[in-house]
Amino acid sequence: MPTKTSLKIDWATHEAAKFACENWHYSETMPVPPIVKIGVWENSKYIGVILFSRGASPDLLKPYGLTQYEGCELTRVALSKHETPVSRILSIAFKFLKKNSQKLRLIVSFADQSKGHHGGIYQATNWTYCGLSSPSAEYWKDGKRWHPRTLSENGYIVLFGQKRKVPKPSECKKIKVPGKHRYLLPLDEEMRKRILPLSKPYPKRVTSIGTDVPEVHSGEGGVSPTVTLQSEKEVSNGQTS
Questions:
Q1: Domains of the chain
Q2: Cα–Cα distance measured from residue 195 to residue 91, given in angstroms and rounded to the nearest whole number
Q3: 47, 81 in Cβ contact below 8 A?
């Protein structure tokens, strides 16, 4: 008889979240803080993280009549090999987030069409699609991509409470990127009705990429860093960092 798969959703440490992003997400980076880090354990093994943040734009929630404390952006789904469908993992993570953030009313997320993504996982979990965001730019230096918020013309930013040296925008190659597909997930009935007029037909996949959320980042093999990144107590209890 097949063994039933067990799933656990709880807070993750910064170290565990960083490992997942750098090894199991195509960007290979952690988003800019502040970040809410929700870990995923399957059969008692750490398999990845779901990250939420305020988003890159301070105006992320203004079009929906919300303050920055009433919504957030889903910024990373970084998972290794797993048996549980991504849609179920996300559904439980959203309920966990809502339970611990009572004032939260809306989650926003984006699918990067420049990477071949169309938002299939959001469509599978019944998000509302409301079109493309405005075109933007990304910066490259020495083969590494930098988000505009992680650059500074004085050469330094404060990250996780520490002053760090970073490239200057003038030192980087600026590349224009097309707008991203924007998806909305309302967390209450009134918000659902509010965003319904913004709804548009789902975009179709235009490439051969199999999923917007790769189960294993290329070349990593899906190794679960359970014990190396967290103590046995943290693995069992899902303690936050």
A1: 7-133+180-237 (3.40.630.30), 136-177 (no CATH)
A2: 20
A3: yes
Do you find a cis peptide bond into 34, omega within 30 degrees of 0? yes
pTM above 0.90, yes or no: no
Q: What would the two tokens of residue 169 be?
A: 């925008």
For residues 241 and 239, give the distance between their C-alpha atoms in angstroms, rounded to a whole number: 7
3-state helix, strand, coil in the chain (%, to 5): 25, 30, 45
At which residue do the structure tokens 């789902």 appear?
A: 202
Q: What is the pLDDT of residues 38-89, one digit of tens each?
A: 999 999 999 999 999 987 677 899 999 999 889 999 999 999 999 999 999 9
Distance linking the first and last C-alpha atoms of the chain: 38
- Which single residue is written with the structure tokens 């083969």? 143
